[in-house]
Amino acid sequence: MNAFPWISCIIWLPLLAGITLIMLRTSKWESLAGKTAVVASLASSLTAVLLWLTAETPESGAAFTERLSWIPTLGVDYAVGMDGLSGLMVLLTALVMPLALAASWQQYRASSPYLACLLIIQGSLFGVFTSSNFFLWFFFYEISLIPAFFLVRIWGSPGKNRSSLRFFVYSMAGSISLLVGFLALAAATGSFEFSVIAEHGRTGTLASELGSKLGWFNMPLGWLCTFVFALIFLGLAIKVPMMPFHAWLPDTYDHAPTPVTMILTGLMSKMGLYGLIRMVIPIFPYTQAQVVKILMILVAAGIVYSALAAMGQRNLKRMLAYSSINHLGYCMLGFLSLGLITNGEMNLAIQKTAALTGLMLQMFSHGIIASVLFYFAHAMEERCGEKIMIDAHGGLRKVAPVLAGTMGIAVFASVGLPGLNGFIGEFLIFKGVFALMPLAACLAVPGLLITAVFLLSFLQKVFQGSGGASVSRFRDLSMRESILILPFLLIMVVLGFLPHLLINGLNPVINKIISSMHF
Questions:
Q1: CB 254: neighbour CB atoms within 10 A?
Q2: Would you say residue 1 has pLDDT above 70?
Q3: Contact 352, 339 (CB under 8 A)
Q4: What confidence tens digit (pLDDT) does each residue in 171-199 have?
Q5: Is 288 left (phi over 0), alpha (psi -120 to 50) or beta?
Q6: pTM exceeds cut of 0.90
Q7: Sequence-distant contacts of 512-516: CB under 8 A, at least 24 apart
Q8: Residue 332 has pLDDT above 90, yes or no
Q9: Which of 79, 202, 179 is nearest to 130 (CA)?
Q10: Contact status, residue 252 vs residue 307, Cβ threshold 8 Å
Q11: Which residues on adjacent β-strands are paired with residue 69?
């Protein structure tokens, strides 16, 4: 354990600050709610960035590790650490949460319950991305869902009650499936630790252990492993979300306050992808190959479907919601390609490395791009006083050239323009998937074209052409808004040309994962 519990600090500082804001709701305290939230969030985020910058991740483990006995009777420790993947997600959280808080400032700075929910989500996300065992991971995972539900239910737009209920039902169904599946793994291996379960998968004993501990299912061993895989995969696929488990997302993103939507798409969807990498990869070698292939075809079809659905939207937030499903589909495609049998061929192992690298980069890039796009949607809503209907606007570039130019950069990054951060992740994913399963890659490729069509059509309709009804009351980005968004635009450009700034830190965990996949 380190001399100072830095990771615990970034987790518990916002969590405890959020709980305090809820409990001390006096008139005097309410006036300090905004300042308290800003101090706690920024202190946690800045510390997290410093940890990422100074971490020296060893080949075999994580940096800044902390371990304390927590529930001895269950063999559960309070164990946190930060390897390359954890550090990447910690960095993403540290960047997006202050932006979401800043977007909330004008409307909710005096609302201590709202700010408390944001802080609790921030702390729980840091916990999810640094937990070393399932028990602690699930603890923080479930905590994050509670404030997200209330943020939609209380502060959302008309239609929020149905959307929040659907969000809750889907989340609980996913959590139950995930819990049952992982308890099966824990029963087979005798441990909640991710590293222990991964080691059982690497040594080839996981399947036999599942068979011996869960033999009362009277199911062939291969299908028993596939059943456990399906339980965990389903629980996490709902959170991503993967089609057809996406029905909760468009309405929730539309009816949630836009700063909350920034968190839902930029960060909370990554909990599902992060969980898939930590929990499902050890089961891949024992899962029926035809099941993985069918899932890849389903994901490829979902990529195209969600792009077509986005193209048909007239509400900006709903268009961006379906676009998010589309881009996360690329991540799912790259992930599932890791489960394809390669018979030890070195060239195909290299392609899996490319797919896994692209998946991790796409997780980070999508979090940045999607959060920024929803921030722009929020800025436009503030100016118009209503939801942005794409067909109701036009010619905004004349009155808001800075907004048009900066949002254009984010849109081109989402399209995957070379030189911006959205390109390299998608390129590496398709590079790997084309070699591993060409059919799925070919089915998914039209999604790239359709994405370019609806995003560029949006830019043309809203910022070009004749002036719409909103032009007279529309104003450009303020200095404060420009300063807030500038670091994210710089990240898009810098990572477009220098992706190795992230890849170098990811290489140890990528090599460790690939070397453990002997099939």
A1: 23
A2: no
A3: no
A4: 999 999 999 999 999 988 888 999 898 88
A5: beta
A6: yes
A7: 512/59, 512/60, 513/277, 513/281, 513/356, 514/349, 514/352, 514/353, 514/356, 516/198, 516/201, 516/202, 516/281, 516/282
A8: yes
A9: 79
A10: no
A11: 77
